Amino acid sequence: SxxxxxxxxxxxxxxxxxxxxxxxxxxxxxPMLLASLVKAESSFHANSVSKSGAKGLTQLMPATAKALGxxxxxxxxxxxxxxxxxxARNLHIYGRVDLALAAYQAGKGAVARAGGIPDSPTTRxxxxxxxxxxAGYQEAAA
Length: 142
What we know:
This protein is an all-alpha fold. It has helices at about 1-10, 15-25, 30-40, 60-65, 75-95, 95-105, 110-115, 120-140.
């Protein structure tokens, strides 16, 4: 597909490119979007742990990781497959990248309560960062 060819053109600029590509293909999402999420979530650090306890490349919360069948959140391939699956579910539910990212970052409940993107500077900055990175990858691949 065009998204895979574009990703392959920039893969040398993306840590864990093979694993990101595999996870994105399995989940049916754009690998450049997944790479953009990983950059925002963990800066490509597989052993990253947030203050709130989110772990790994895609910063999965323990309950989310468990629900997605993750045994080792620090295993890059396993974490990426689960994060890609979770993002793909959000994309399917919301039909919009910005809403899917808002749900990924703030939770589905926050999106439901707000009736859209939560009015939070943190969430808005998160979405903007990912969309900016994604656009940069697309530009670099063009």
